[in-house]
Amino acid sequence: MSSKRPFIRCAITGVAVVSVASFTAAGALTASAATIASRSPHSGRATAADVTRESVIARAKTWNPGTPQRVPYNQHAYHNGYRTDCSGYASMALGLKPPGVNTVTLASPSVSSPIAMSALLPGDLVIDAIGDSNTRHAVIFEQWANPGHTSYWAYEQRGGYGTDHRVLTYGLKAGSQFHAYRPRVLGGGGNPSPGKFWVDTFSNATGYREPNTNDPQGTLNKGTNYVYCRMWGAEVRHGGDFNHWWLRTDLDRTNPGKNGNGAYVSAYYLAKWGNDEAKDNSGQDIPNC
């Protein structure tokens, strides 16, 4: 588990939707933020047809990240109808209905689907939906900061500062609670694409070139991940718990000089099932490779 991070604070889990009436009642809060930048052509809700990767980044820029005109952080204030915390900011960039959903909902199938960190594209999200209201956080991926993909540029609305554009490593370090997500409006969400199956893993897991422990390729982060198929291989055992099945998947972090795509992770790390079982989250056997 990752350590607590100061000054990140994001939306409280229960604050998923605010009614028109409650938003109207919050007019004083909106008025008190008069120093915030005025409405722009990119503000307000977008239709699904309007949302592209380019438009998500363009909308993220309208809150003037990293400048004196940036939008201040406040879980209880609004800018152009959107809550001025991290999930409200991400909701605005994605063109979701004001005032925006919370961090947990951003990571839910109704809004997005998990992807490998290595698969991130502009406008995708990196989210910690596991912690409490002081540590949950969401950022908008822009681009990799270096050829080794060890850090990336992202837009975020962060506590103690407001709207920012900076280099981050969330989700790239061992034990991180951050995971990559693809919004439905950008092609994610709902059921996995054909040939992929959702599974939950209880810990970070090393991925290997073959279904054995001879050639490590990188790491699959703890959480919800997709896998392609299963293959019988070398036993992985810890005490009385064991599994011979291996799951073919794409890793979140790749070791230097290795290939994280199509690597094998032991089904031992599946959170829901027992010895020598390899099922997806719906309880169906994952097909053989």
From TrEMBL:
| UniProt entry keywords in alphabetical sequence | Signal
State the signal peptide span. Answer: 1-33
Q: What is this protein called?
A: NlpC/P60 domain-containing protein
Q: Which organism is it from?
A: Sphaerisporangium melleum
List the taxonomic lineage. Bacteria, Bacillati, Actinomycetota, Actinomycetes, Streptosporangiales
